[in-house]
Amino acid sequence: MNQDNIDQMSRIFKASWDIYETILAHDYMAHKRIFPIVERACVDFSVQSGNHPVSVWELGCGSAHYSSQMLRSSPLASYTGIDLAPNVLEVAREKLKVLGCPITLLAMDLFDAVQTTGQEADLVFSSYALHHIHPVARKAEFFKSLFNKVRPGGIFVLVDLFRDDGQSREEFLAGYEQMIRTQWTSFQGAVLEEVVSHCRTHDFPEDPTELNRVAVRAGWSNGSELCRFGFHRVFLFSKPRL
Ligand SMILES: C[S@@+](CC[C@H](N)C(=O)[O-])C[C@H]1O[C@@H](n2cnc3c(N)ncnc32)[C@H](O)[C@@H]1O
Q: For ligand 1, which residues put their CB under 6 angstroms from it?
């Protein structure tokens, strides 16, 4: 992403944060149902790794509202959160204190962060941020770079919006817009239109087959689906042990 795009996206997420808080409060994107399942996967990963403290990255962490609670169940060596919106990272900083491990928060593009960091991670987590990266060739580059930064045996847990296999972006957006208009009833008038317009402009979900294809090409295992709540799905990718 070039600097103009980064600045523009950062402004958008900063300005829309109140709207996002409403989405979280009403569980419109299924966080309350998804995060216990991801928490179980993280605990299982820790147990399989011999309960050694793991280094975690969260890409597009936002306020870390749910992740800060979820990660409390796993022994952590460190937590690094990356997000474009610096004001939201300040909220995250407070919430993440419960983890009791060294915390690093970086206000930058997640794609750039993964490409440039000199550190390695055991467990990478991302929730509702990757669909902002497009086109799919850029997601492919992202999966490759991430693969090189994750230790053998490490995992990438991806919560995101997904198209159905064979569904076009336009068909996805029509369905998502209909869901917003009929089920996200806290939003009315201009705010409702802003939410719909945000999705139409910034959301580029892939279908699972396509995303698995780019992941496997980058060296990851075929993603296993942990759960699905309509458009909102969770996949776990593993990096094979040496
Ligand atoms: C829909 S919110 C999700 C926040 C949080 N992960 C959650 O599930 O509640 C998307 C977040 O991703 C961040 N984001 C979007 N594109 C990004 C990018 N290219 N690099 C870093 N952060 C990004 C936004 O600033 C925002 O905080």
A: 1, 9, 13, 20, 60-62, 65, 82-85, 88, 109-111, 127-129, 132
